[in-house]
Amino acid sequence: MCVSRCLRCVGISLVPMAMACMLSNLLLLFPGLSVHFLLEGHVTREATWATGLWGSGLLVSVGHTCVTCLCVTCVCMFYSVLCLLAAGFCCLVSATGLVQGPLCLYESGSGPTWGVPDAGYLYNSSLWSGVCVEPRGVVQWNLVLFSVQALVSGLQVVLCGSNLLNSVLGGRGSNPLCAGFCCRSVQVPFELIHGLEPDGTGSNWMEPDGSRSKGFYFDKF
């Protein structure tokens, strides 16, 4: 019960994260909200890989939708591993694009050239507009969007990893990750289960210390 509750909690939180990654990657494909840079092939390589669309976006959202609906331990583990790998790859690609800098038109020794300038300028914001001539503001554009994508996909890795661990522990009869967070215990009076009056007679369940049980505890999910 508690395992399924935690899977639903994680699944619900991963869906908006997947949407954020998909939106970030879409915007990365259109620097300055202009389509002609994409048509001419002047878009940063890591953005064209679209890991935010198919990795942290589509695979994670579809995978955890299946987990939430099916909730079978082996299926949960499979989709958790799949989502973990997809989100991890997206995080790695986003970090690479963030460190290397964007593809842009810059002044080189042979004149204006399309390429990736030396990344040293990225650490000095006053040089951003001077190094990359086109697309305008592409350094800030990539910096913000790749940062969002890397951060969100990193959170997805953490959640998918905890989800995988939770599935393994839940399948083995132990589930400490859920306790007190996604799962709550509800006390059901003993009399309600057996149809006895509060002061009724009959055989009563006894605790190990000899006292009468006050009821049973069930996981609420």
UniProtKB/TrEMBL annotation:
Coiled coil: none
Listed GO CC annotations: membrane
Listed transmembrane segments: 12-33, 53-72, 79-99
Organism: Sphaeramia orbicularis
Highest taxon above the source species: Eukaryota
Pfam families: L6_membrane
Origin organism lineage: Eukaryota, Metazoa, Chordata, Craniata, Vertebrata
Matching InterPro entries: L6_membrane
Entry's localization field: Membrane
Membrane topology, record value: Multi-pass membrane protein
Protein name: Si:dkey-83h2.3
Keywords carried by this UniProt record: Membrane, Transmembrane, Transmembrane helix
Stated family: Belongs to the L6 tetraspanin family.
